[in-house]
Amino acid sequence: MISEWKKIEKKQFAPIYLIIGTEDYIINETKKRLVAGILDTEDTDFNYANFDLEETAIEQVVEEAETIPFFGDRRLIIASNPTFLTTEKTKSKIEHRTVRLEDYLNEPVDYSILVFIARVEKLDERKKLTKLIKKQATIIDAKRPNEAELRKWLQGVSNINEFQMDNAATDRLIELTGGQLTTAMNELDKLMLYKLEERAIYTSDVESLVVRSLEQNIFLLLDKMIALDISGALSIYYDLLKQKEEPIKILALIASQFRLLTQIKLLEKQGFSQQQVAQKLKVHPFRVKVGARQAKSFSYHELTMTLEKLAQMDFEMKTGYGDKAQKLEWFLFSLQDQRKIQRMN
Fold it and tell me: Where is each DNA polymerase III delta N-terminal domain found (predicted)?
């Protein structure tokens, strides 16, 4: 996909693009590069159209693509949500005359760039139209990268911008952004701006500048508890309270993470790999990697018992029994005692 971006920068455009995947960064970056490469500022209003195919029939999109440009050389037409290429159900009552699209795909005009954006993991390969568009279009894969791909991506962007960022800093950036490309790229942009003069990014920079999401703070809190660092866990918890996070919301996220650890533990016992677990549970592979590491510190019985405690706490919080903030403190201390007992055994 980076090779296709380079072609776009050189104004080597394909007549039809098909973007497949759910990674917002890749989708938005591709759109941005196409707009910048194809359109001049003064003719954007005349030669740019953006359609949602759940609201607009495909024949209108084709008609727009066949319209000759005004005051410019090319037109850019973007059409999102082509559900007629997927197995997804839609509530839209729009009927698409896809024969018009088939005709266009076989003979696209040379003055319009037509871009389809399918925010799905894959298309319905059984359909004749899917086979035709994949044959005629330039495909841009917008799937979420795995950890190795994300590491290569971040270090590649750093190198292109003439920055040095070692593996430790890259890994910490991935960890703190939950393996999410869009978030990681936003944070990398911020890091490069901050270190513009030095042009080197270290782990300490990542630690001090990258904003942790609430979910990432929960991961870190559990890591502290597993390491029997109760003061570290409480420090994170108190910081969350200072940020006006509700104890019941923090509890729900802790319970969600323990539920994930329990599922991972069970599936790993059944012989599933981490990649298979991620696919089966429909969660990001990086979450499974972190969860698998955390799950090693608990037996399956301990995890189920902890979930029962959390469910009881949730009930008590929702029924107004006791102080909510204090209940989570007690939970952290009880989990620390549980971990100490396990280590002694």
Answer: 17-143
